[in-house]
Amino acid sequence: MESSMFLAKFWGWYLIIFFFILSLNPKRIKQIFNDLNDEKFLIITAFVAIIVGLVNILFHNIWELSWKIIITLIGWTSLFIGLLLFIFPKRTIAGLQLINIKLVQVIYMLLFFTGLFLLNAAYGIVPQ
Questions:
Q1: C-alpha–C-alpha distance, residues 13 and 66, integer Å
Q2: Using 50, 70 and 90 to split pLDDT, how confident is the model at 11?
Q3: Could you give the CA distance from residue 75 to residue 127 in angstroms, rounded to a whole number?
């Protein structure tokens, strides 16, 4: 299977599942931000984000104007946030909390629609 298709399915399902988890249990996001104050959790989260982002980029670093750029941007975003969490933890957590507080509904809908878009690109449910 082509890496773009695999990653579209992976990220599509991941984003849809994450959307439903946050919608059904909105306290979970507050718990994640509280846990980021724990150094061990922060370091593990930063390393996981760096690894996921780097693996995504190594398998899929396609900069063409199609649905494939979304997968590339997810990888670069993950790598960038992981590095920021590792290098500037306090500032990064504060920035992420501010974004989450001001744009929580936009972020949830973006997760949902991006997931649907990627699943559609992978499975071809609605012809493009």
A1: 19
A2: very high
A3: 26
User: Quick one: tokens of 27?
Assistant: 């306290």
Average pLDDT, the chain: 92
62-121 confidence digits (pLDDT tens): 999 999 999 999 999 999 999 999 999 999 989 988 888 788 888 889 999 999 999 999
| Owning domain of residue 109 | 3-122
- Looking at this protein, which amino acid is placed at residue 105? Q
Find, among 10, 12, 16, 11, the residue nearest to 108 by Cα: 16
Residue 23 included in any domain: yes
Residue 56: partners with Cβ closer than 8 Å, 6 or more residues away? 7, 71, 72, 74, 75, 78, 79
Total domains present in the chain: 1
